[in-house]
User: Which sequence fits this backbone?
């Protein structure tokens, strides 16, 4: 089935990749800039949705299997819950921002010079942005994939 012109197909893939990269950048910088997990996840989903709309569900170069989407959604939900429980055990509240560098990413010299709160030490907020971004990306993409595959399912039942 021919869905769109050759020019549209040539332009949409680079635009999709740019949208995905901008979404990742928005998620990773969400603790110090406006934006975060929801906005970045919606941007990543828009890149995937653009590819699906232009190429079609079966011919899209950004194709995700059902198992892959399930794993991404599970990682997003479990990660959010795990970091919430870390806050519960450390600070006494669910999603309590511990204010510590959990993965030891910030060098010790910078930690000694800068005092909390600082830009390099946002606690669990960057991690939560990543997990929220995964959930939003999978949720929005799954809606469009379901609607794009509806005609295929409807055609098989008739």
Assistant:
């Amino acid at each position: 089935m021919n869905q769109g012109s050759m020019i549209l197909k040539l332009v949409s893939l680079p635009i999709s990749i740019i949208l995905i990269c901008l979404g990742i950048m928005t998620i990773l910088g969400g603790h110090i800039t406006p934006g975060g997990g929801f906005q970045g996840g919606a941007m990543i989903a828009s890149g995937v949705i653009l590819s699906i709309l232009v190429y079609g569900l079966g011919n899209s170069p950004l194709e995700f299997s059902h198992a892959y989407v399930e794993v991404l959604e599970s990682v997003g939900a479990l990660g959010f819950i795990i970091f919430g429980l870390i806050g519960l055990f450390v600070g006494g509240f669910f999603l309590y921002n511990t204010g510590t560098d959990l993965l030891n990413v910030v060098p010790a010299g910078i930690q000694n010079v800068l005092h909390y709160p600082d830009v390099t030490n946002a606690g669990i907020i960057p991690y939560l942005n990543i997990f929220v971004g995964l959930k939003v990306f999978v949720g929005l993409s799954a809606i469009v994939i379901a609607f794009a595959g509806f005609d295929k399912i409807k055609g098989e039942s008739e």
